[in-house]
Amino acid sequence: PGREATARAEVGGSVTSLTVEEGRPVSRGAAVGRIEARDLQASVSSADTGVSSAETAMKIATAEAERVQSLVKGGAMAQRDLDMANNAVAGARAQLAAARSRLTSARQQLSDTVLRAPLTGVVSVKTANTGDVVAPGAALFTVIDPSSMRLEASVPSDQIALVRVGAPVEFAVRGYPEQTFTGRIERISPQADPVTRQVSIF
Fold this sequence. Notes:
By secondary structure, the protein is α+β, with helices and mostly antiparallel strands. 34% of the residues lie in helices and 30% in strands. The protein contains two helices and 13 strands. It has helices at 38-73, 79-111; strands at 3-8, 13-18, 25-26, 31-35, 114-116, 121-126, 133-134, 139-145, 153-156, 168-172, 180-184, 188-192, 198-201. A four-stranded antiparallel sheet has the order 1-8-6-3, with no helix packed on it. Strands 5-4-2-7 form a four-stranded antiparallel sheet, with no helix packed on it. A hairpin with a 7-residue loop joins strand 10 and strand 11. Helix 1 (38-73) packs antiparallel against helix 2 (79-111). The longest helix is centred in the N-terminal third of the chain and has 36 residues, at 38-73. The two termini are 12 Å apart. The model has no long low-confidence stretch (mean pLDDT 89).
């Protein structure tokens, strides 16, 4: 195949489900499995609580700044009190932004526990099964695109003058007796095999 991709674990943990099988077709982006994510779910809940707390603190700081501003205009408080209130609002805003960032990161990590097909095609290799414990980066399965076939063939060295880069090629594949594939030569090996005296073309 000209196109293939290997799905790898984004997070470590136990594979709770993996529905792909060798030879089965899959669609790009389709959810085909999941990795256990109890810790990550707890992280999302914690981050969500942090955002709620930061939003509450932001509302309180804003309301206090508005109250102080009214008192300053009426002469009941000094300008420095308003400056302090505005600084508190700025600090609360920064805390809220940080909490939202943590929540976004936690949700992204949780979404990484869902295993998805990297491209549309057919599963060629399955290297993990339900119940396996995998580390981040571990290969889970490989998908090939059978519509993007590459051919490596050999030509006798005394006939190499008959081929050139860009020349059209027709070929058949064992197992597809009624189908003829077409393509073009992309590369020609610069040397012949010393044993067979044939030159590889791609």
